[in-house]
TrEMBL record:
This is AbrB family transcriptional regulator. InterPro entries: AbrB_dup, AbrB_fam. It comes from Roseicella aquatilis. Keywords: Membrane, Transmembrane, Transmembrane helix. GO terms for biological process: regulation of gene expression. The keyword Membrane applies. The keyword Transmembrane helix applies. It holds the Pfam family AbrB.
């Protein structure tokens, strides 16, 4: 029998994959009926995790890439010409936010290292709010423990996904950021299928080049180009975005098997506590930056949030919180992580900060 957990997808029988996706969809539908923000992703994740506690779970290998392609197209379609100009005008704030978010890793790394009992090198890569894949790759290059970094970064994403959408959904005003909001595009099947095929073609060379998250970045770049030049052939319908949420949520849920949660309890507790501290710190910084720059506070909170780029961009889309600005923050941070995390880690070791 296939092992439970995310890596069993390619080897699991079709009934296991079908049961997992059906359970995930039911969980998403239930939370949608309860009007929970980001319902389809959170519901799918929790339902899959509950199933994983009792039996093997798996999603088809194509589910997450397909969901990311749909998400990339849907997010890129929000970048009309004026919106792209507004986001470009905020580039200094995006760069400052990315550098500050990475620098918070120094603040949280000591706390995480002490709580988890890891070495300082591994603790740093566990604490920096980068993407799971990006930080795992950088940790491997630096000689840190990749499994520990992957687990800690996964737990951080889970904590953020479960807290930020509900809080912002209840507290933040929606749809009041005109310069960062593009009009919805009409849906046309032939245009959408053409975009999906072209998006897949854009993603493939990025994947071959080893870029993190190519399935989202390639289609997103394509949709931004089409939307900004006024050549977008179709919008992405809400049901497809919801299906993408289910795919991503189910993928996250498959990681929460019984063995995953029970085998590293000390590490999991350290990840949850440090994630809460990091989230509070970045929220306060985002509030101050928004006030100084005259930008929408909820969008900056999501942009600075230590969650993954797909999850936070989906939250912004679900809550209508200036999606292009939030995505701009996370794209900038992804680029800066690849450029700066390694040198900053070496500098921190030299200066005794780690």
């Amino acid at each position: 029998m296939a092992r439970p957990g995310r890596w069993s997808g390619a080897l699991s029988p079709l009934p296991t994959q079908s049961l997992t996706l059906c359970t995930a969809a039911l969980g998403g539908a239930l939370l949608s009926l309860l009007h929970v923000p980001l319902a389809w992703m959170i519901g799918a994740m929790l339902a899959t995790a509950a199933l994983a506690w009792h039996r093997p779970v798996a999603v088809p290998p194509w589910a997450r890439p397909a969901g990311l392609i749909v998400l990339g197209l849907g997010l890129g379609a929000t970048f009309s010409g004026p919106v792209l100009a507004a986001v470009t005008g905020a580039l200094p704030v995006l760069l400052a936010g990315g550098v500050i978010a990475i620098a918070t890793g120094f603040v949280v790394a000591r706390l995480f290292t002490r709580l988890a009992g890891t070495d300082s090198r591994t603790g740093f890569f566990c604490a920096v709010p980068g993407g799971v894949i990006v930080m795992a790759i950088l940790a491997q290059e630096a000689g840190a423990s990749v499994p520990t970094v992957t687990l800690a970064q996964t737990m951080r994403v889970l904590v953020v996904v479960l807290t930020f959408p509900p809080l912002l959904g209840w507290l933040a005003p929606h749809g009041e950021f005109g310069e960062f909001m593009a009009p919805r595009q009409p849906f046309w099947w032939p245009g959408l299928l053409g975009m999906a095929a072209a998006g897949l073609a854009c993603a493939w060379p990025l994947r071959r080049a080893g870029l993190a998250n190519p399935w989202m970045l390639g289609p997103c770049a394509l949709a931004i180009l089409l939307a900004a030049t006024g050549h977008l052939p179709s919008g992405v319908p809400v049901p497809l975005i919801n299906a993408a949420q289910v795919a991503l949520g189910a993928n996250l849920g498959t990681r929460l098997s019984r063995s995953f949660l029970l085998s590293s309890r000390r590490l999991a507790v350290a990840a949850v506590i440090s994630s809460a501290v990091l989230s509070l710190l970045l929220t306060l910084i985002a509030w101050a930056m928004a006030r100084l720059a005259g930008l929408p506070v909820p969008a900056l909170i999501l942009g600075m949030a230590p969650g993954g780029m797909p999850e936070m961009a989906l939250t912004a889309k679900a809550l209508e919180l200036a999606v292009p600005l939030v995505l701009g923050f996370h794209l900038t941070r992804t680029v800066l992580c690849n450029l700066l995390v390694g040198p900053l880690h070496r500098l921190g070791l030299r200066l005794g900060l780690l």
